[in-house]
């Protein structure tokens, strides 16, 4: 598309897509509110208030049966490590590939990213649901596979010295997006129904924090380390994935007998009881 048009046109198309998504959310999706109409509006928290942050923190940190508070904290820690790995992919890949010795151009980079995103998306939309359905894959195992995939992909990419080597990277990263839905699934089975929004909001906040600080970290790390090892940032991000790998391995061992699709009532006292290994 870039060959037949301009950067402005491409960004305009992307802007239109986002605008359509926003209008769809605002118009087609109805908001459900637990507050009765005509209630006291003064009692509702405003948009710009720390009460939302406090509610998220209380949801994550409150005492729970069967060690679920520890499980929630571990899942959020695994998610944070995973998001830093994603930040390395986002902020380092273009700089790494266009620098010496590879010297890629924008067309090569776009093709590589397109292949990588297509494979990851196909695995997420096809392979993961089929694995849950027919292979009985558990959430911790899916998260473990996703963390291993991202870690190996980052490790390999940092060692690439030729274009041929780089084109094999999507083979390692193909399952890297499995971790996010597995974490959300496990959180939804641990917290009560009326706490899911707060738990997911905390996860989204951690993602924003990791991507913001990751941009500062990896964009600052590359100039400082490129003189002796250009792939250092990728190797550092791959090392962070060990945190997620260990956590998912622990949860897989501990929760492997738990029901994958147990329902949790809105009452916070009715928590899912998991069978200890």
How would you characterize this protein structure?
The protein has 277 residues and is an all-alpha fold. It has a single domain (50-255), classed as MFS general substrate transporter like domains (Growth Hormone, Chain: A, Up-down Bundle), CATH 1.20.1250. The chain contains 10 helices and no strands. The termini are far apart. The model is unreliable at 35-42 and 259-277 (pLDDT under 50).
Which structural traits does this protein have?
10 helices; 277 residues; mainly alpha; disordered C terminus; transmembrane transporter activity; single chain; Growth Hormone, Chain: A
Topology readout:
Blueprint: H1 7-28, H2 51-61, H3 68-98, H4 106-134, H5 139-159, H6 163-166, H7 169-173, H8 179-190, H9 196-225, H10 232-255
Under CATH at level 1, the class stands as Mainly Alpha
Largest sheet: none
Distance between the termini: 54 Å
Return the string of H and E elements: HHHHHHHHHH
Kindly identify the CATH topology: Growth Hormone, Chain: A
- Give the overall average pLDDT: 85
> What is the radius of gyration?
21 Å
Specify the CATH architecture: Up-down Bundle
Shape: globular
Fraction of residues in β-strands: under 5%
Helical segment count: 10
Oligomer: single chain
| Strand element count | 0
Low-pLDDT stretches are 35-42, 259-277
The total domain count is 1
What is the assigned CATH homologous superfamily?
MFS general substrate transporter like domains
Helix content percent band:
55-70%
- Helix/strand-derived category reads mainly alpha
Protein name: Putative transporter add1 major facilitator superfamily
Transmembrane segments: 6-27, 72-97, 109-128, 199-222, 228-252
Organism: Ixodes ricinus
Subcellular location: Membrane
